[in-house]
Amino acid sequence: MPQSDYSFLKLPRNLQDLQILRDNLEIYTSDYTVQVLVGYCLVYVFMQTFMIPGTVFMSLLAGALFGVIKGMALVVSTATAGASSCFFLSKLIGRPLIFSLWPDKLIFFQDQVARRKDGLLNYMLFLRLTPTLPNTFINVASPIVDVPYHIFFLATFIGLIPAAYVTVRAGIALGELKSLGDLYDFSSMATLFLIGVLSVTPTLISKKKV
């Protein structure tokens, strides 16, 4: 990449920035696929780990550059890796931060986790599939309230699929988006709900068998 092209390599903060980044990266994606993939993964994981806003733009970019299937695999895997990094970082140093930022949410979350030990995977899936609690808060608070990592990992990996599908699919038609609100039209919300139900159904069936 010539030095003159470095100016467009910045985290997108709006759809205009994202379109500029997409237009320039498309040139390199076909010839330098591995380098673009590695760079994308590092940036996404870094943003998730340190709670930097803007991952929705990165999800849109995945759809624009790699299509629905590859884009979804990329977003779900990097988002889960980033959330896991945030989980372990919070386990080491996050307790003072979360007590100062979200004391009320933490008390609520701790109470809910304690009451739902037997069906904790169901509850964590529910949180990932709905806007009940922010994903950033879930990443930071889970180790503090003793959510086991394997439960956190499964709920994150499965629960992120519906939203990833909606944003990655929207990224294919990036030029038609006027605002982020356009992501969640009736069709998208219906798709999100359907995939969410399909994602949580195996867990519900296994619980009934028990």
Automatic annotation (TrEMBL):
Primary residence: membrane
Pfam family of the protein (one): VTT_dom
Keywords per UniProt: Membrane, Transmembrane, Transmembrane helix
Domain VTT: 52-171
Coiled coil: none
Keyword Membrane included in the entry's annotation: yes
Superkingdom of origin: Eukaryota
Bilayer topology term: Multi-pass membrane protein
Subcellular location: Membrane
Keyword Membrane attributed: yes
Residue ranges of the TM segments: 32-52, 64-89, 151-174, 186-205
InterPro entries: TM41A/B, VTT_dom
PANTHER family: PTHR43220, SNARE ASSOCIATED GOLGI PROTEIN FAMILY (PTHR43220:SF7)
Name of this protein: VTT domain-containing protein
